[in-house]
Design a protein that fits this description.
This protein is of the alpha+beta class. The protein has a domain of 237 residues: 2-Layer Sandwich (Nucleotidyltransferase, domain 5). 35% of the residues lie in helices and 24% in strands. The radius of gyration is 22 Å and the shape is globular.
């Protein structure tokens, strides 16, 4: 009987399931969106139960599309939106509130209080991350302070607190576990001792004993029958944060190999090897994974609004009917127009870390129109990624020879060419978009003995070569730096 791998990629906008064959080839994909719950204060939430229901449903949908019988599925991998934080009753399995999405900065006051204790430098040194409301530590503390049921359950050591992977693993298998990649993004995990840090947990009002067990990314987290659909349980044996899974899917197993994931936001991540290195230029250090019994570190920059800028053009401004229009509109824009857009709708992430920054459009003139604004929005994605990579090269002394990319916006040839031009570096775009799901599926398949690491070299890529002259590049970057300065002023 043929054996297939099921991979679930639970992202900010929705949940997708992939079926990979015995060679790691993608056979089918199924997607379901979930609600984006945004209140008048700008708080961003998701319904954890809706996410779990969609996970079960897309798995069946993908298998049906692939023509695969449930009994032929051998194992399961999970990649997940990172930092989004779920709290639930481990007795009943019910969430105590909606999940707080990574984009949400409602815990800014918590961060300000923790900073006043003087622990900020220790947090940065031990976890690789500066204190920020975007990470789960502050979100968990906010839940304990503002959701009475959560505080009561925590007092009885019955509260589940974790990122989306921990929620899904618990619902699927009954195991209270997270993996090293996701743990490293909580701001509670010590990257030197490779354990929850008691002092940092205490600063946020958390007990390390109440947090999930941290499990190797390629270990067996438990078995699932996916809500009774599978005749026998299969192992969940590849769990990674979505950006880490994309890095793995690209085969970035060696120091210096780098990828950028273009999604709602973006993650730019470089493999820096087996030793911790702190950033001096506004980036963070995390764990790529613990795989094959060994941890690998990464340097990373995260951006809050990249693909979401295109959604804003469509849903809020009505300038486009679909994301696919943006490339042609950008090409039609006036080359001399100097309009810049800084999408700091919820502040600026790496390498600036200015939560108080605000979005703006500047540099317009009387002839600026739809095409120029669309181009500015599209180019803002590439400008932000350029700034992160420039900081990364300073931190590591590695001149980037190639950028591997993935995510829906990489289908936009204008954006990819502009990215290569800004970086003066080739950009390599795979034919497959679903690198996060493919990476988690490949890790699960390797863990289960279905694949070898050669499966990671099977992707086919399209290359974009830099072609912009130095004068134009310098001028455009100067305009962008001026706009960023205005946004932070």
């Amino acid at each position: 009987m043929a054996k297939y791998v099921l991979a679930v990629d639970q992202s900010t906008q929705g949940t997708k399931a992939l079926i990979l064959d015995e060679a790691g080839k993608l056979l089918a994909r199924a997607d379901l969106p979930h609600r984006q719950i945004i209140n008048e204060a700008g708080w961003v939430s998701h319904d954890p139960e809706e996410i779990f229901r969609n996970t079960l449903q897309v798995a069946r949908m993908a298998a049906e599309k692939a023509g695969v019988d449930a009994a032929e599925i051998a194992c399961m991998g999970i990649s997940n939106q990172r930092e989004t934080t779920v709290a639930w009753d481990r007795t009943t399995g019910k969430p105590v509130c909606d999940a707080i999405v990574w984009q949400c900065a409602r815990a800014a006051d918590v961060c300000a209080e923790v900073e006043k204790t003087g622990i900020g430098e220790a947090v940065r040194e031990r976890t690789g991350i500066p204190i920020s409301p975007y990470f789960p530590a502050a979100k968990m503390a906010w839940i304990l302070r503002n959701v009475p049921e959560a505080a009561a359950l925590a007092a009885e050591h019955r509260l589940g607190l974790g990122t989306v992977d921990a929620w899904l693993v618990w619902k699927l298998t009954g195991a209270y576990r997270t993996d090293y990649s996701n743990a490293s993004r909580t701001q509670l995990f010590n990257l030197h001792t490779l354990a929850w840090d008691p002092e940092i947990c205490a600063a946020y009002g958390l007990d390390p004993a109440d947090l999930p067990e941290v499990t190797d990314s390629d270990a067996v987290f438990g078995k699932t029958d996916l809500g009774g659909w599978l005749p026998e349980g299969i192992p969940v044996c590849g769990v990674l944060g979505d950006s880490h899974a994309a890095l793995f899917g690209h085969g970035c197993l060696e120091r210096g190999m780098t990828k950028a994931t273009y999604g709602t936001g973006s993650s730019i991540m470089m493999n820096i090897g087996t030793e911790f290195t702190a950033s001096r230029n506004g980036l963070v250090t995390s764990l790529a994974w613990k795989y094959g019994g060994r941890v690998t570190y990464v340097m990373e920059g995260n951006l809050n609004y990249t693909g979401a800028v295109i959604t804003w053009l469509k849903d809020s401004l009505g300038l486009i009917a679909s994301a696919g229009e943006t490339g042609e509109l950008a090409r039609q824009a006036n080359p001399a127009d100097a309009t810049c857009l800084v999408p700091a709708f919820t502040g600026l992430g790496a390498p600036y870390w200015r939560s108080e920054a605000r979005a703006l459009i500047c540099g317009m003139n009387r002839t600026t129109g739809r095409n120029e604004i669309v181009r500015a929005a599209l180019e803002s994605i590439a400008f932000q990624i350029h700034d992160v990579i420039a900081a990364m090269e300073k931190d590591t002394d590695i001149r980037l020879p190639l950028l591997r990319v993935d995510g829906g916006p990489t289908r936009n040839s204008y954006l990819m060419q502009f990215q290569s031009d800004l970086l003066s570096t080739p950009v390599s775009c795979p034919e497959a978009e679903e690198l996060s799901g493919i990476g988690a599926g490949c890790m699960a398949g390797i863990s289960a003995g279905l694949y070898g690491e050669s499966v990671l070299r099977a992707l086919r890529y399209q290359a974009y070569e830099p072609g912009m002259d130095a004068e134009t590049r310098t001028r455009k970057l100067a305009q962008w730096r001026d706009a960023i300065g205005k946004a932070m002023a």
